[in-house]
Amino acid sequence: MEQYSSSQCGAAVQSFVSGWSATIDNGAGQDGVYGSPSNAQNDWQGDTDNVWIAKTGTNSASSPSVTIWGLSPLLDMYWNTYTGSRIHQYLGNQSVTWGGLNITIDEDIEDAPIVAGSGVKTYSNFTVNGTFIGDDLTFNYGINDEGNLAGAYVDSSGVEHGFEDTPSGPVTIDYPGATETVATGLNNLGQVVGAYNTPESGFLYTGPGQFTSVNCPAPVCPGIRDSYPTGINDAGWIVGDWDAANNPGSGFLYKGGQYQLISHPGAVYTNVNGINGDGHIVGEWLDGNGIGHGYIYYKGSFQKQIDAPGGTGTVLCGINNNGQILGASGDTSVFLYDENSGLFTTLPSSSEGYEVTSLNDLMQIAGIAFYASPGQASSSASYLSSIPRAPFNPDRHHIRTTQFAKLPTDVQSMTTSTTFYSMCGDSHF
What we know:
The chain is built from 2 helices and 28 strands. It has helices at 6-26, 37-44; strands spanning 32-35, 50-54, 86-98, 101-111, 126-130, 137-143, 149-154, 160-166, 169-173, 181-186, 192-196, 201-207, 210-214, 224-232, 238-244, 247-255, 258-262, 269-275, 281-286, 292-298, 301-306, 314-319, 324-329, 333-338, 344-347, 354-359, 365-371, 395-403.
């Protein structure tokens, strides 16, 4: 349905959509309607299983809103099932090339039943680019669909600063008056989340000098000491971790001006590591035996537990808008998990030093490299998890990868002969 006047045509459209839906449903099929958010809100509720909403607005290829939520005036309370019932057309008339053929298409994010190919994905392009920002240490924690990075670097005076690494160069992010700042995630609109100082307090950064506090309030997070955002999607929903003196940690979701507690039943602690445009949240919860389990959380409940085959402990680092999840299991195994098919793809592993931290819709994976400068001795650190962190050295630099990266221990001589190691990076102070 192209956009129409609800006051003039709404009754006729309602009659048609109702009949269309009933006919498809009688054949045990799934029906859906394409059109504007205002028409969906006014005329289609209760009559169709799925909606495909066209809303491009002021979106651009450099800052698209890749999310199925916040499609005003359509309220988020409608068509909000976990199995999916929304598609959002967020960009129109995009020129792309497939198989050498140039075509013009509209771009969409979907969380609804669709007819798709059944081919098996393969991943074979292993390359890496090194980017060094700080004088000493650099940590990368987030990557968006433009390949922009968010993280932190330590200057020659030992002070930690947040940064957003854009195509025009890195932008330093320092919370006003803070002694240390780290950026932990960003979305396609250039909004960045992070934390500052110890105890940690969270923030949302939307431009030079524009900071908003993101701290889970005590009624939701009792006795809170640290509040630590870890990710943000294009709807502006923010996820993160918090802890208290008598609580080793749980997670939170902040959306629509309200905080929600994320705490797995019976868990020693619950970590939240990522959120996608569908609102699906991933992380890790630790059981009483010290074993970590991955999870998918959505609409106020833990929808699925994910344990990698053959691994001792599983942690999920991030999820993109295709339902592809980056995770780690055991000491050295890094994997991709497809939320839709339930298939695991194990990435090549070795004892070489770096951690994966996040991924985007283009299957670019970001991480942290660990390497030894000449004459430096190796050192190691433990990670607050059932999975130990990789051994690392004092010099740490972030990496941006194309497809899947392999990083040698000596980042000065990058080759394609080395492989993945480890798990989600720990960005806490």
